[in-house]
Amino acid sequence: MASTIIIPFLPPNHNPKPHLKFSTSTSASPNPTHSIPPRNLTHLLRLSTQTQNLNLGKSIHSIILKSQHYNDHTRLLNSLISVYLKFNRLIDARNAFDEMPSPDIASFASLISAYSKIGREIDAVLLFDQMRQLGIFPNGFCFVALLTACIRNSNCELGTQIHALAVKAGSCDCVYVANAVMGMYVSCGFFEDALDVFDKMNERDVSSWNTVISAMVKDCRYREAFELFREMKMEGEFGDRFSISTLLSAMSQGFSLEEGEAVHAYALKLGLDFDLSVGNALIRLYTQLSDIEKVIGVFDRMPEKDVISWTGMLNGFMEFGFIESAVDIFEKMPKRNIVSYNALLAGFCKNGEGLRGLRLFQQILKDGPKISDFTVTSVVNTCAMVGERKKSEQIHGFVIKMGFTSNAWVEAALLDMCAKCDRVEDAEKIYDRKIQKGSFPITWTSLISARARNGQPEEALSLFQSGLKRDDLMDVIDEVTLATVLGVCGSLGFAVMGEQIHGFAYKSNVVGDIGVGNAIVSMYSKCGNLENALNFFNQMHRHDLVSWNGLINSYLNYRKGDEALNAWSKMELLGQKPDHITFLLIISACKFTTSNSVSTCQNLFLSMLSSYNIKPSLEHYSAMVDVLSCWGHFDEAKNLIISMPFKPDASIWRALLENCKKHSNISLGRQAIQKLLTLEPKDPSSYTLISNLYSASGRWHCSNKLRQEMRLNGLKKIPAKSWIIHQNTVHSFYGRDKSHSQSKDIYSGLEVLILECMKAGYEPDTSFVLQEAEEYQKRHFLFYHSAKLAVAYGVLVARPGEVVRVMKNVRLCGDCHEFFKVVSSVTGRRILVRDGSGFHRFEGGECICGDCW
DNA sequence: GTAGGGTTAG
């Protein structure tokens, strides 16, 4: 059967032994190899590649081996090598190469290129040296090959050497070599060197421009990228799909609308708008530029779509919160890969659909593709958002089991998840293990905000300060970290530190970041410096929704209702759309207007749905009830409670009760009490409030009964805590607390202060003492309230003229309020107390809050 | 082609 020269075209799965006893020695032709001229063998080799038949190539290899005659036919062996390389048989190719008695430049070049392509630069360099030792002069092809390896491995050291050799050899005049040199510098991040090579080139092709443009994009120098693009056109180079898609991606990263549209228009002119990669880049561009209609337009017009286009469209919808459209796209995609799944998962997370995200993850595990670190990061983030401790532990275990924990992104996500799922200790454990350098600022920020959220201000602050000691501080502190820490300063009232961080932000050039700016405004406002807050707001370049909400809230903190409503009008005038928070704020602002603003408030409330399509939530109803009852419109408040689509919760009854107290509306107050006690029988703050209602209306008996009941229920008040910052340290006090190191001085100082104030007309009001006790004991309780201790400390240590700033976790009691008024006039000090209800600013015997008690 | 920590309210 095996006949002479007819070489069988075996099916691809037929795999005979390499050195097969081939028909070469059969009887039909006693010495057949001699009869095949090398030209024909070359022909057959080409056929082997064309028909994808490796066995044919191998057969020819053995023919060549058997015949000494062919050994010096370098060209033939070169063809053989390229056949092997086409089939990715590097070892076979190398064997063939090693069999060659006199390899030429082409032989070397093919193998150098083959090694380079797979990143084995050492083997490539060895061959390169060997070649030079043999006196063979490297050509441009070899240089390009070696540079390709350097690009692959970002090996700048070798790359620079090759560059020098290429210059010496005069190869750099070749545009391909110069392009590769640039590419090498770009991949190593040496953008200036790349530019330098580019500037020196005599001849440039479109790849040269593309390389240098993409270098600028990688270096975030979008404007320069765009300038180069202009220059390119002026030099008569039109650009291709690569130039266009690179530029478009630059514009989408640089968020430049006009330039992006200009490039789009240019792509249309070149007829490249139907190109796949250009279309994909356009989808991304318009997603970033928040133009969903254009995204859809581009997507619909694309004649050819790949999985990237579909995923891009999915991301586009998710970006705009069109969750169902995104899901629809996902279901319609003709092909999905893990990136598409990741996009859907991340989109669920971004849009608050945590449970759907977790369900999707289950599905991915069941029938989806192999998960990646992206998948893991997304599911961990989703879990962080859901916030359930138990689920987070499950996911955590899974991630460990799958061996993803060494990835920096995953690690940071895990830490954040622990921080948000009530597992701060676990978060700390991750933090204490050696956190990978790149993710330090992120994990650090997560942990700081977790501690602040957890009511551990001192720990948050000390963590921040320990980070400040790092010498690479400037590299790791960025906008987000600063915004977080400013938030901590604000919520804890660290005025001095807040100011320092403002200065730091200024120095490190990030005050322009809108998030940092918003945080600065809120920090000043919460630290009692409304003026600085307003000044900073006014000098911000740009305001977004959060900025305006922050401004309104700043006014609200100081009970400046009219100003808050003015800010709202301005915001509306400037076209800034409000959100549910805005409405919560402006409705609440109506409590603090100088004249009755009930009708304004009602109109605002009605406009929520009709004009802004924001459905009022229970919180909005609660705020409305507060405003109505605050102005004494109890009937309207009652009607609203009855008609609202929610079951009234404790906050509504509490608001109502508080205002009943204010207007001495005992009968409605009593109803509110009953509701409150059924809803929250265990909440001590309800009892405090109720007791205050009775006390205020002189019903001592009821008040006493209530206290009895409280005792029977075993309720304790949330311990009131006040603190003050002095010399970057938090000094906190509980009632009758003697743990402070300067406790003695503070107590005697306070006693002097009380005596002085009594002389000036302060009368202790023991009705604010809820404990059952003799009158003298009550006074004792009253005098050493935490806020009084903190203020006394502040008065003792503050520099002349300095404002005494005290923070309190719960509301200031009425007696302290009266007392501080007098203290401010007796000592001539300005005293600022921030409590649960906002600010009290005591100055010259008055409080800005008017009669908040 | 995709990703992490934040700023307003509570």
UniProtKB/TrEMBL annotation:
PPR repeats: 104-138, 205-239, 306-336, 337-371, 407-441, 544-578
Domain DYW: 761-853
Any one GO BP annotation for this protein: RNA modification
PROSITE patterns linked: PPR
Molecular functions (GO terms): RNA binding; zinc ion binding
Keyword field contains Membrane: no
Keywords: Repeat
Alphabetized Pfam families for the sequence: DYW_deaminase, E_motif, PPR, PPR_2
Gene3D superfamilies hit by this protein: Tetratricopeptide repeat domain (1.25.40.10)
PANTHER family assigned to the protein according to its UniProt record, in alphabetical order: PENTATRICOPEPTIDE REPEAT-CONTAINING PROTEIN, REPEAT (PPR) SUPERFAMILY PROTEIN, PUTATIVE-RELATED
UniProt-recorded name of the protein: DYW domain-containing protein
